[in-house]
Write a structure and sequence with these properties.
The complex is a heterodimer of chains A (154) and B (243). Chain A is mainly alpha-helical. Chain A is built from two helices and no strands. Chain B has one domain. Chain B contains seven helices and four strands. Classes of the chains: A mainly alpha (154), B mainly alpha (243).
């Protein structure tokens, strides 16, 4: 049993038997490298690179879209704030206008009332005057009658 | 008992010779390496038959493997230069990894061939030396194609005193690469075989699991070091030591 183990080393050939196997193996290896390059490294390497490019371009596209979306959101917020301000301004303007109109109308009404009052007063005055005049006339007539009566008795 | 003996027999350094144009080659190494190559090609074809943007199943798995290899190459060679070296480093890793694991997981010993036995292709010194020399060629090519003749400047960096050591490194690198892989895989298979010889049941299991672990680590080390050497040659400074 142990004989086979040790005997084998000393037989023809031996462990370090270098012969034509070496160059043939080298050629075979180079052919294998070329074949694997065509069958394996190139197509799969291309697939990997293409995938890398695809992922990278998608990523940059997504980032750009994100930036754009953020810009849009900002712009909308700005627009919103501006229109809110505008609305408030419009409301304030309308209130001011209404107040002005109201005060104007109030003033006009007061004036009218004043004018009417004055007219009525003047009317009253004239009527009073005419009443006094008629009264004076009647007083005169009555006095005359009374005088007549008194004179007639005497 | 005799059939058990046959299963547990140890054969080291025996080869199943094929003769091709008068040259002797180790047939058992090629047989298993073809199995490994076939497995890799089969997986690649199945994974890339219908490539989808959202991967699933085998494509997902192989993409995971590819990303692992890419990270490995990227980490050692650098972001800018690693792409052309992915096939080389990746094939080193995959071939060694699948080879090692096939040696550990596939019961090759049940298939009898004359004069030898099947084992992981990385179990043979020819394979590991071939891979190591290719790595040397690769980093020389990387250095020259990147820096031209200025590549030689790295031999006198940081000081010319280190010139002999720097030259020696070019020899020690493939030597250490090949022997590390060869020694680890052979030793692992031998330990398992010896344990199986002594106690055929259960006892070898922990060692087998450890073997799976070291096999994977060795593939990673080989590929990482190859990438380190290539990156170093292109950068052109520093002498990183390797373990």
């Amino acid at each position: 049993m142990s004989g086979t183990l040790f005997l084998a080393v000393e037989e023809a050939g031996g462990l370090f038997d270098i012969n034509a196997t070496l160059p043939l193996m080298a050629v075979q290896f180079l052919v294998l490298a070329a074949v694997l390059n065509a069958l394996f490294y190139k197509p799969l390497g291309q697939a990997i690179d293409e995938r890398d490019g695809y992922v990278r371009s998608n990523l940059t596209g997504a980032k750009e879209q994100l930036v754009q979306a953020e810009k849009l959101a900002k712009q909308y917020e700005q627009d919103l704030a501006a229109s809110r301000k505008q609305a408030q301004q419009i409301i304030a303007e309308a209130q001011a206008e209404a107040e002005q109109v109201a005060s104007q109308e109030l003033a006009a009404a007061q004036q009218e009332v004043q004018a009417q009052k004055e007219q009525v007063q003047s009317e009253i005055e004239t009527q009073k005057e005419s009443a006094f005049q008629t009264l004076e006339g009647q007083v005169e007539a009555l006095t005359r009658q009374m005088l007549d009566k008194l004179l007639s008795f005497a | 008992m005799s059939s058990l003996m046959l299963l547990a027999k140890l054969e080291v350094g025996q080869h199943f010779y094929w003769e091709i144009a008068g040259l002797k080659v180790h047939g058992q190494v090629f047989m298993t390496s073809w199995f490994v190559i076939g497995l890799l090609v089969l997986f690649s074809v199945l994974a890339t038959r219908k490539v989808e943007r959202i991967p699933s199943g085998l494509q997902n798995f192989m993409e995971y493997a590819l990303e692992y290899i890419r990270d490995l190459a990227k980490g050692q060679i650098g972001e800018k230069e690693y792409r052309p070296w992915v096939p080389f480093v990746g094939t080193l890793f995959l071939f060694i990894f699948v080879s090692n694991w096939s040696g550990a997981l596939v019961p090759w010993k049940l298939i009898h061939i004359p004069g030898s036995e099947l084992a992981a292709p990385t179990n043979d010194i020819n394979t590991t030396v071939a891979l190591a020399l290719l790595t040397s060629l690769a980093y020389f090519y990387a250095g020259f194609s990147r820096r031209g003749l200025g590549y030689f400047a790295r031999y006198i960096e940081p000081t010319p005193i280190l010139l002999p050591i720097n030259i020696m490194e070019d020899f020690t690198k493939p030597l250490s690469l090949s022997f590390r892989l060869f020694g680890n895989i052979l030793a692992d298979e031998l330990v398992v075989a010896v344990l199986v010889l002594l106690v055929p049941l259960f006892v070898p299991l922990p060692v087998m699991v450890l073997g799976l672990f070291t096999s994977a680590i060795q593939a990673l080390i080989f590929a990482t070091l190859a990438a380190v050497y290539i990156g170093e040659a292109m950068e052109g400074h520093g002498e990183e030591e390797h373990g």
